[in-house]
Specification:
Distance between the termini: 47 Å
Structural class: alpha/beta
Largest sheet: 6 strands, mixed
Strand content: 15-25%
Order of helices and strands: HEHEHEEEHHHHHEEHEEHEEH
Helix content: 25-40%
Number of helices: 11
Strand order of the largest sheet: 6-7-8-9-11-10
Length: 321
């Protein structure tokens, strides 16, 4: 496992670099990739991001200025905020055995790179990348802006329980470069489309509560997306909704990706370890935020995630409330 200094030294030897982000990209993976790309270019390196087909209206502007041309042939491949090759987008699969450096912060990280660096205690991969980039040179506003996106989005604008004093110190340092963090906060945390509001209302209307109302299940079937003509941008970070319900400490958002294929996003408090829950179904993540995919009809998929929660929760009480 590399240290920060060793990682920076290794990156200095790279050129013609392609940077990968994970499926259903969030601000952390995109922000880290864009910041690393900018830092490498500052060193005079050729570096690009592999275009991610699932970018949303909020993440696309962060990434697209660094997108690789179709004919780019990399000499080195780096991944940011990807815990496993199972999270590679389809167009990244040709590189699954070619990752020269993997940078991550998930406890479930699978060390698939030729070299790897991971910091599970970091609230965001952006915190780790901040330290790496500082070793490479000065942090310009072009680097600081995507890093701020990375850190702020993975902490829910510093409201999630994973936020630490280190998180605030990193954010403060990035803000001091003069970036327009107010616009980032407005776009990512204080703006919702009308369609997004309709999705949230429908999810809450159909919410199911279990375990003395401490566990909530929110479902987003394909039919719901079709009913409101919702896009991926409208559905971005829907998993944050359930944990806002008073009295719950375990929120599961079931998103139907394809018929009878459900992406489970689990958000928990200290009573339940989300990674342990999702690991029982082949997934992973963090103690308070994790995910997995279940292929089964809705009722069966829901029961599988409830059974996994019951195995992990020390005092789970069966039955719907």
């Amino acid at each position: 496992m590399l240290t920060v200094s060793e990682t920076a030294a290794l990156l200095r030897t790279f050129d013609n670099v392609l940077i990968l982000t994970h499926i259903r990209p969030d601000g952390d993976t995109v922000g880290c990739a864009a910041a690393l790309c900018a830092a490498l270019r500052q060193l005079g390196k050729t570096a690009y991001l592999l275009p991610n087909p699932s970018l949303t209206d909020t993440t696309r502007p962060v990434a697209e200025v660094y997108h690789a041309p179709a004919d780019f042939q990399p000499d080195y491949v780096v991944s940011t905020d990807i815990a496993t090759v199972g999270l590679f987008p389809d167009n990244a699969l040709p590189y699954q055995d070619r990752v020269d450096l993997a940078i991550d912060h998930h406890p479930s990280f699978e060390h698939f790179g030729k070299d790897n660096i991971v910091r599970p205690e970091a609230a965001a991969c952006g915190e780790l990348l901040y330290d790496i980039v500082r070793e490479l040179g000065s942090i310009t506003p072009e680097i600081a802006m995507p890093l701020y996106v990375a850190v702020s989005t993975d902490t829910g604008c510093f409201a999630y329980s994973n936020t630490t004093p280190k998180t605030h110190l990193v954010a403060a340092a990035l803000m001091q470069t003069g970036i327009d963090f107010k616009t980032v906060n407005k776009i990512f945390f204080r703006t919702k489309t009308r369609t997004r509001m309709q999705l949230e209302a429908a999810m809450l209307d159909a919410a199911e509560f279990y375990d003395r109302e401490r566990v909530v299940i929110l479902s987003v079937p394909q039919s719901m997306m079709e009913r409101f003509h919702a896009t991926e941008s409208d559905a971005e970070d829907l998993s944050a909704l359930g944990s806002q319900i008073q009295g719950t400490d375990c929120a599961v958002t079931m998103r139907e990706l394809r018929p009878d294929v459900w992406k489970m996003s689990v958000r928990t408090g200290s009573r339940i370890n989300a990674t342990q829950v999702c690991a029982l179904l082949g997934g992973g993540g963090h103690a308070a935020a994790a995910g997995c995919t279940v292929e089964a009809p809705w009722a069966e998929s829901k029961q599988q995630i409830l059974d996994a929660i019951a195995q992990v929760a020390p005092d789970f009480v069966p039955g719907r409330c």
